[in-house]
């Protein structure tokens, strides 16, 4: 099977095919399909991919398969049903990579739910990575009042839709979310207000809320806790200003949900900030969620 798949891959990437072509590809140019597979050939291709049993090449093979189908949605149902019906350990990995290449598959084929909740952080070849990365970094750069007013609401809506519909894909960018917050908590209060940094903290908290409960799994603990560290740093420096009041409430609700979903990991992490939480509880005695959290610790 490896030789057959390598041969098809070579056909589609043969430099002679693209020799003399215009390097500046028009924006709306239709893709050219060098190899076109029928439904039966697609199934045979899947058999070869599963028989190869090479996890490192799975992403490349699935991407090649998609490139050899002119209308991927016509064969999507057949591909999913065929791979799902195979009694093969590699079938689930194949379906995961198919989802990474065709995200709408989640709504067209909802019955393979285990595929959409799987941890795919370390898999390569996700078509949504570039899009989600651009959106997140754009939001983080909206410090200019004019840019913020024009783009903030639209960008926030896009990323919230992505978090709600494809949480696993956005969780691939969890470390990026944490990185965007780092270094902001120590800024002067005037800068935080003028450049909309408080808004970014609220926005990221909203994203994390939508990523529940998957974000509480141990596999995502490093990225999640890095992000939560930034919130604790913000509250340590500016926990007594009015802009953080609503954020404290949301943050405490999120921490309680974290403890409920993953008690061991959450408690160990939150315990190191007990003194800070205790100080906040004395300042904000009317926040029941904060009082309950401190008492529980």
How would you describe what is shown here?
Pfam families: INT1_R3. This is Integrator complex subunit 1. Residues 129-285 form the Integrator complex subunit 1 R3 domain. By secondary structure, the protein is mainly α. It is built from 19 helices and no strands. The protein has helices at 2-12, 15-18, 39-52, 55-67, 72-85, 90-101, 105-108, 113-116, 128-140, 145-165, 167-171, 174-181, 189-194, 197-210, 221-238, 245-261, 263-271, 274-283, 288-296. Helix 5 (72-85) packs antiparallel against helix 6, helix 9 runs antiparallel to helix 10 (145-165) and helix 14 packs parallel to helix 16. The N and C termini lie far apart (57 Å).
What are the key terms here?
297 residues, mainly alpha, 69% helix, elongated, INT1_R3, Integrator complex subunit 1, INTS1
**Biggest pleated sheet:** none
Radius of gyration: 23 Å
Helices, by number, come to 19
Distance between termini? Answer: 57 Å
Q: Assess the beta-strand content as a share of residues.
A: under 5%
Order of helices and strands: HHHHHHHHHHHHHHHHHHH
Ranges where pLDDT stays below 50 over 5 or more residues in a row are: none
Return the average pLDDT rounded to an integer: 85
Instruction: Estimate percent helicity.
Output: 55-70%
């Amino acid at each position: 099977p490896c030789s057959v798949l390598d041969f098809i891959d070579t056909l589609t990437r043969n430099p002679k095919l693209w020799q003399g072509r215009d390097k500046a590809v028009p924006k709306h140019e239709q893709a050219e399909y060098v190899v076109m597979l029928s439904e039966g050939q697609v199934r045979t291709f899947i058999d070869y991919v599963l028989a190869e049993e090479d996890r490192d090449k799975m992403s490349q093979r699935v991407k090649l398969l998609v490139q050899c189908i002119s209308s991927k949605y016509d064969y999507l149902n057949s591909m999913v049903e065929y791979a799902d019906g195979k009694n093969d350990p590699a079938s689930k990995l194949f379906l995961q990579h198919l989802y990474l290449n065709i995200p709408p598959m989640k709504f067209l084929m909802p019955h393979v739910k285990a595929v959409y909740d799987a941890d795919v952080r370390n898999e390569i070849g996700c078509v949504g990575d570039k899009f989600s990365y651009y959106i997140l970094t754009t939001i983080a750069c909206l410090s200019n009042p004019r840019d913020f007013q024009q783009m903030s609401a639209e960008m926030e809506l896009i990323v919230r839709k992505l978090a709600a519909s494809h949480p696993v894909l956005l969780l691939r960018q969890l470390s990026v979310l944490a990185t965007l917050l780092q270094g902001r908590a120590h800024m002067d209060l005037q800068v935080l207000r003028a450049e909309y940094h408080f808004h970014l903290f609220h926005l990221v908290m909203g994203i994390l809320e939508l990523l529940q409960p998957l974000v509480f799994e141990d596999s995502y603990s490093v990225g999640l806790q890095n992000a939560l560290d930034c919130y604790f740093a913000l509250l340590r420096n500016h926990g007594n200003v009015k802009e953080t009041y609503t954020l404290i409430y949301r943050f405490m609700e999120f921490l309680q949900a974290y403890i409920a979903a993953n008690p061991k990991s959450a408690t160990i992490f939150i315990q190191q900030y007990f003194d800070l939480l205790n100080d906040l509880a004395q300042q904000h005695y009317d926040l029941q969620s904060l009082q309950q959290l401190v008492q529980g610790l």
